[in-house]
Structure formats: C-alpha cells, structure tokens
Design brief:
Elements (H helix, E strand, L loop, with lengths): L7 E4 L15 H6 L1 H7 L3 E4 L3 E2 L11 E5 L6 H12 L4 E6 L3 E3 L3 H7 L3 H4 L4 E3 L18 E3 L5 E4 L6 E3 L5 H15 L5 E4 L21 H4 L4 H12 L8 E5 L5 H8 L8 E3 L21 H17 L5 E2 L9 H5 L6 H13 L4 E5 L20 H12 L4 H11 L2 H4 L29 H7 L2 H14 L1 H5 L1 E5 L6 E8 L2 E8 L5 E4 L8 E5 L11 E4 L4 E6 L9
Parallel strand pairs: 1-2, 1-15, 2-5, 5-11, 11-12, 12-13, 14-15
Antiparallel strand pairs: 3-4, 6-10, 7-9, 8-9, 16-17, 17-18, 18-22, 19-21, 20-22
Bound molecules: alpha-D-glucopyranose.
The site of alpha-D-glucopyranose has 9 residues, from loops.
Length: about 550
C-alpha cells in the first residue's frame, strides 16, 4: 500500500472511551470501539501518547517511553488492541515525543543527581548575569529556561517547564531514540508520528535571537534535523516498505517540508504543517480573536499543494487535531448548517493531493464545547494564556472569549457516543465535560445522520479512484471570494472540486468540458451534473465533477 491512498484516523485516547468508569479513556475502551473505527474504512489509527507520564501536557511529557500509563491500561491491553485493529486491516501509528522528555524521566533525574553523562542528554547552560542563557521563549509562555536544580545553571524547555528539550547532538541520545522506535516496531507498530520533530536540530551554541526577530527562527528546521532523521530512518523504519511516518512541523517552510517528505531523501513519508490553521490569528498571535481570512486560507492550501507537488513532497491533510479548536466552529457554521459545513470541509481535504487525517468526532460533526467558565478548561496552555491576558490588563470576559474560541480543550472533549449521560463516554465523571451530546452523537448519526455516511463515502473514493490518490493538483478560480476550487488530473481523467465556504449561495464559471460531467460526490444529494458553464452553489455546498465520466477500466 502507498501512503497516497491511505486515510488515517486520530484517537485521543484520554477522550475516546472509558472502559473502567475512571472518567479517563483507556486502551480497552478503544478495543471496545474498534468496530466504529473499522467501519470508516481507514487504514491506520494515530494514537496520541499513552506512555507513562505525569500528564502535565496530557502525555506529551513522557517519563518512560517503554511503558503504558497505568491509567490507560497495560502492555497486554496494547497488544490486544494492535491485534483487534489488525483483524480489520487497520494499522497503528504511535506518537513519538522525541524532542523532549518529562523532567520525571530517568535521564533527567540522573542528570539532576549530577551524572555528567545524562546532563549531556539535555541542554544545560550557565546563566548570563543572573539571566537565562538566551532570549528564547517557551511556546506555553514565559522564558524557555528554568533553573536546573540548585546548580545555578538552567535547562532548556521549549514547551512546559516539565518538558526538558533533549540534546540530539549527543550520539547516545540518538541511539536511545532509535531503540525506542525499534521497541514499538517489535510490537507490530508500523506508523509513527514524530512530535515537533523539526525542533531537534537546534544549533548547539543556542544563540539568542537578534533584537526584534522571532526566536523560533533560531531553532526551527535547523541544519542537522535532516541528518538525524535519515539516521533514525536507517536504524529503524527506513527499510520497511510498510512503514508510515509523519513529522509534525512547527512553524516550518514548504522548502523544508519538501526535503522532509520527498521519498528520495529517506526521511519521512509526510508532514503536518499548520500555516492554514493560523488564518484566524491576528498579527500571527494565537490568543486573539479574528474572523478567518478566506483568501489567505485558500492561498496557503493551494500554494502548499502545488509546491509540495513540484518538489515531490507529500502533505498530511487535516482540519482538526487535539491541538486545534474544531474546524466546524472556525471556518463554517456549526449551528445553522452543521451537515453542509462538516461535509464541505471534509470534501476539500479528502479530494486533495496528500493523506487525509480524520480526528475523532469529526466524522459525526462534533463542535467546540459550550463552556461558560474558565474553570471548565484544564489545558496548561489555555490556563497560562488566560492568566497572561488578564495580567496584560484585559477584562475577564474578553480573555474568556479568546480562550473559549482558541483552547485546545475544544478538541479534547470526550467522543460523543450516545445521547446518554456524558455522551456515553464514561459511567464516572469525565475528566473534561461534553456539552452537546444530546444533539450530536454516534448513535444518532448511525441511525439517521448524514455526516458519517458522507465520510465513509469520501474515504472509499480515495481507494477506488487513482485520480484522487495519484492525480496532480492545480488551483482553480483562486480569486473567487467565497469558493475554494481545484482541479485534479490523472491520465485522461479530470476532477473539479468546488466548495462554497459561506452561508450565501454563489456561482462560478467552470470550464466547458465539465458541463454535463459526472457528479463523483456532492454534499447536496439533489445535485445534478452542471447544465451550463455557470454553476450555482448553495450555502456550504461542495461538489466534485469528473470528466470523462466512467473512464475505461474503472467502475465507480
Ligand atoms: C505537539 C503536540 C502538542 C504538545 C506539544 C509538545 O505540538 O501536538 O499537543 O503540547 O507538541 O509536545
């Protein structure tokens, strides 16, 4: 199988299904819900980390790479889960957090205890005149440096203070990380998602960012990342044709992503980038409110599609994940047009060049929770941001409005299985509260919903039409104010994909060749092949038209 015709489903284990009543999801809970996952027709499940962790950053602070967090289950549960998915032909993708470890990891504890060999596993530096070693800031707020015990030195943490950055320049670190990957491969795991992996090539001298410049440029996509990835690949997944790897790339560039994902470079199968999900950041700042910039969204999606294609790279395609508020709330209308919005957004991603990812709950049109108080949120990032906004003089109400729309907890609320208490997620008290499960849940979708069947149909299309998996992509009608459109071509076939991002009807001119073309998929079941070159689109309508219809040798 090629990654080109794959679709990957993301499970946030803490919020998927709780089999014990603890209020926290677990691996046996996932086993109980394997039928739902398999019914989508996906090829692999990416699990957010469930390794031993103090959970300061919900498992992205790993204290032991080789063991399952007892709150999530046991190694035997994991092995059973792999087998249960495998029985449906579904593979497992694990989340490898190799840029940093928890400060509770043995390596850090031994470093703190004074073992020089382990101190070289981290970035530990003396301060400068009583200040941290450089001016980098943590992505979760404040300085990126914290005191290293009572030594007077500091250690680097680009994320939470309990997430110490690991020194990849140390060959022993690289040995250890390759061993971690090999261990999980030994358990039958063939997929790996590498967390913020483009941060492992920081320059060893850790220079301050020049006044007035963005410190991220100092440590992102550093020169040695590529070398370290090639080395990791060569020691583990690189020789296995069944392996699937995706790098999470923080604040990256197309050029770097081409390099990471062009198969000739032997680094990764594909990359996540986030530029298209910053189009509602005012002045590039996340903790602000701004309506999304549609022209910019379109420009970014199309620019990445085209330039990754030109460079032979491969994109992971997604709207949602555990770090992003629900796309339905950000880019469309979750209230008046929930079905149309959810299916329109899905159409855009699933018919594009790349590998689509479906984040749990997306397939039933889950939305952000309807929280009313700051106490409803638990994420360290949201709590820090709220405090910082209020400290900057903003009113509680304004700060709350921002957290309400931007918090990562928006995506992390439990999967809504049924209209019953807590969405049927737990019999206990959920660690994060669902709010609209009475209206939005799997049971109702299965019985009479239209979003779930549409996702299944989209996923099937990629598997039955090489045009979608392998075709080239080119933007269409880039200047249209409300429609995102693109063309795919493969041999004689062409596909025109149209998506109206707004709640008003609109029209656009399509090439004559598509008049009378076959509707491959449409979120309006009454859609007909276009009778003229002027196509009318209803609110949030999405439509894919193929010519020639029914090519030889392919039945849809
Ligand atoms: C990635 C993860 C995010 C985590 C961060 C630090 O961005 O997706 O959830 O907080 O890395 O590991």
């Amino acid at each position: 199988m090629s990654v080109h015709d794959m679709v990957i489903y993301q499970v946030y284990p803490k919020s998927f299904y709780d089999s014990t009543g603890s209020g926290v999801g677990d691996l046996r809970g996932v086993i109980e819900k394997v039928a739902h996952i398999a019914s989508l027709g996906v090829d692999m499940v990416w699990f957010n980390p469930f390794f031993v962790s103090p959970q300061r950053d919900n498992g992205y602070d790993i204290a032991d790479y080789y063991a399952i967090d007892p709150a999530m289950g046991t190694m035997a549960d994991f092995e059973e889960l792999v087998a249960a998915l495998d029985a449906h032909g579904v593979g497992v993708m694990l989340d490898m957090v190799l840029n940093h470890t928890s400060t509770e990891h043995e390596w850090f504890r031994r470093a703190l205890a004074g073992e020089a060999a382990y101190q070289d596993f981290f970035f530990i530096r003396p301060g400068v005149d009583g200040h941290p070693p450089n001016n980098w800031v943590s992505k979760f707020g404040g300085s990126a440096w914290a005191p290293f015990g009572d030594t007077g030195d500091y250690y680097l943490h680009l994320f939470d203070v309990t997430q110490a950055d690991v020194n990849w320049h140390n060959p022993r670190v690289r040995d250890e990380m390759a061993k971690v990957v090999e261990f999980w491969r030994g358990k039958g795991v063939r997929g790996f998602r590498f967390d913020v992996i483009n941060l492992i090539g920081k320059p060893a001298d850790l220079p301050s960012a020049p006044e007035g410049t963005d410190d991220r440029a100092m440590y992102t996509d550093g020169a040695s990342v590529h070398e370290y990835l090639r080395e990791l690949a060569a020691r583990s997944y690189g020789l296995d044709p069944d392996s699937v790897t995706v790098g999470e790339m923080s604040s990256t560039s197309v050029e770097a992503c081409v390099q990471y994902s062009n198969p000739d470079n032997d680094e990764l199968s594909m990359v996540f980038n986030f530029h298209h999900l910053k189009v509602d950041y005012r002045d590039g700042q996340k903790w602000t409110l701004m309506p999304f910039d549609f022209a910019e969204l379109k420009r970014l999606l199309m620019d990445w599609a085209v330039r990754m294609q030109e460079g032979g790279g491969w994109n992971a395609l997604f709207w949602n994940n555990h770090d992003q508020p629900r796309a339905l709330d950000r880019f469309a209308d979750p209230v008046g047009h929930r079905y149309e919005s959810a299916t329109m957004l899905a159409t855009v991603i699933h018919l594009l060049r790349g590998t689509p990812y479906v984040y749990m709950g997306e397939e039933i049109g889950m939305t952000d929770p309807e929280y009313t108080a700051i106490g409803d949120y638990v994420d360290v990032e949201a709590i820090n941001a709220y405090a910082a906004l209020v400290a900057s003089g903003m009113s509680d109400a304004d700060a709350f409005a921002i957290v309400h729309s931007k918090a990562r907890d928006n995506a992390r609320t439990p999967m809504q299985w049924s209209p019953e208490a807590h969405g049927g997620f737990t019999t206990g008290t959920p660690w994060l509260r669902p709010t609209n499960h009475e209206r939005i849940n799997v049971a109702d979708e299965e019985a009479s919903g239209r979003i779930l069947p549409y996702y299944r149909a989209l996923i099937r299309l990629r598997k039955t039409h090489p045009l979608i998996a392998e075709g080239t992509v080119e933007p269409f009608a880039l200047d249209h104010p409300s429609v995102l459109a693109y063309l795919r071509r493969h041999g004689e076939q062409q596909l025109l994909v149209l998506a109206n991002f707004y709640g008003e009807p609109t029209s656009l001119a399509i090439p004559d060749a598509f008049v009378g073309g076959e509707i491959l998929i449409a979120n309006d079941p009454s859609a007909e092949p276009p009778a003229s070159a002027e196509v009318l689109l209803r609110p949030y309508e999405a439509l894919a038209i193929r010519i020639p219809s029914q090519p030889q040798g392919e039945q849809s």
